[in-house]
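Weekly modeling sync, notes
Attendees: AB, CL, MP (scribe)

Item 1: holo prediction request
CL wants a bound-state model with 5-O-phosphono-beta-D-ribofuranosylamine before deciding which constructs to order. AB pointed out that an apo prediction alone won't tell us much about the pocket. Agreed to run with the ligand included and paste results into these notes for async review.

Input as submitted:
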Amino acid sequence: MSNPPLRLGVLGSGKGSNFEAIVRAIRSNSLNATIHLVLSDNPAARILEVARSLGIPAEALPPSNFRTKLEPEIETAAATRLAAAGVELVVLAGYMRLIKAPLLNRFPGRIVNIHPSLLPSFPGLEAWKQAWNAKVPTTGCTVHWVDAGMDTGKIIAQATVPVLESDTPETLHARIQTAEHQLYPEAIAKIEAAR
Ligand code: GRF
C-alpha cells in the first residue's frame, strides 16, 4: 500500500450498514482509505450516530422542501463541506435523493453509489421488492458511478443473489445487503488501486 489512503466522504439517509462495512474494510486493511466526513439529509439517521461513535465528523444537512433532491444552495453547501474536508471520492451509502449539478460539478466522475438490484433492471425505490414482485430467479446489487440520472451511471461492479421460493421482500433484501457489504468495499478498493 504505497498510495496515501483515498479520502472518502459519505452521504447516507438511513441505517448506514454499508458505511459500517466500509469502515470494517478500512480497519482490516483491505481498503486503503480514510473517511473524513459523513453527511445526512436525515438528522435522525443511524448513520450519523454510528459515525460519531467512531469519531468520524458527521453532520445533518438543513431541512429541504423537496423530497427527491436537495435545494441547490443546500447541495452547494454540502459540496463545499466535502471539498473542504479534502474528500476525493464521494460514497453514497443509502442516500435517498438524486445528485444534482452542485455535487456533480464539484466531484466530476468521483461519486459512487450502491443499488440493490442488477442494474439496469429495477432502478428506483425498493428495488428488491420490484425484483421479488417480478419473480425473477436472480437479482443482486450494483456499484456504479453517479450521473444526473436515477441509477443510470456506468457500472463498476455487480454481485448476484438468488431469489428463493421461500423469500419475502424482507428476507431477499437482507440477503442483498449481505452481498452489498462485500461488494461495496471491494469496488472502492479497486477504484483506490486504479488511481
Ligand atoms: C442499501 O440497500 C443500498 O443498496 C440502497 O440503500 C440501502 C442502504 O442501506 N441504496 P444502509 O443504510 O447502507 O444500511
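Recorded for review: The CA atoms of residues 3 and 46 lie 32 Å apart.
Action items: CL to compare against the apo run; MP to circulate these notes.
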